[in-house]
Amino acid sequence: MHGHVGRQVSQLSCLVLAVEADGSEVLTVEGMAKDSQLHPIQEAFLKTGALQCGYCTPGMVISAKALLDENPNPTDREIRQAIAGNVCRCTGYTKIIAAIKEASAMMRATRE
Ligand code: FES
Hints:
Oligomer: single chain
Order of helices and strands: EEHHHH
Strand order of the largest sheet: 1-2
Bound molecules: FE2/S2 (inorganic) cluster
Helix content: 40-55%
Largest sheet: 2 strands, antiparallel
Number of helices: 4
Shape: globular
Mean pLDDT: 89
Number of strands: 2
CATH architecture: Orthogonal Bundle
CATH class: Mainly Alpha
CATH superfamily: [2Fe-2S]-binding domain
């Protein structure tokens, strides 16, 4: 599963051989934080309790970033489509969708 985000390509890392990423910029969930400040998406996941074990969280956060970079104000349906490649067995998806909506609002507020 992959999608183009502007000049970015969002792709499930488990489907990419390391050699295929040669010469590409790779963004990980750890790389989203800047100067010890969490990215708004990471903040929103914490704020809304959208994680329990955290196993799915990196994929959810990166999928949310790809979505919000392309679509700053997604609908619930668009959020569900964007995270469809990730499975969470802990929280259900209600809090994850709430987190992405919260992140969307936080990111739009900083742009205004
Ligand atoms: S928080 Fe545990 S799988 Fe999603």
